[in-house]
Amino acid sequence: MTAVAEGDREAMRRVAAASPPLNAMMRTTCVATQLEGGHATNALPQLAAANINCRLLPDDSVERVVAELTKLVADDQVKITVTVSEGASPASPLRPDITKAFNRITDSMWPGVITVPTMAVGGSDGRYLRVAGIPTYGIQGFFQDRDDVRAHGRDERMLVRSFYEGQTFLYEFVKALSQ
Fold this sequence. Notes:
two-stranded antiparallel sheet, globular
């Protein structure tokens, strides 16, 4: 991970190949989330549409992503329209007081667990604070079953124990930063 953080492309390739979640954290991603087309099951559609949801890295641009999608589609009859563009959202710097508190509380609640700063593959309202110049961090103090991730699914859930541990972690973390 140190080599990845230092920009080592070969290390990035190895990590990306070994872990889909880490792969998504290291690059801009685009996924077709909704497809529409046709008016009947036995007829060719006259029109089709796809909603492509892109999650951009902090230093990427909507213009670059649209240009890349246009190049990949390579069809002048396909029109790409940006429906929502929230602009760039700079990354927040890692502050020593935050990482120290995070590590201290993690060590007390879960001895031996190593903490690693990562970029979330989802979005949050924190982007608006960062754009306004307010450093913002997504801190979570709960564990998930890596074989049962159901984020944004119809049956999204988490372990009950993780829910209560997360409440305790967040309380202790906010208390530590406010002193």
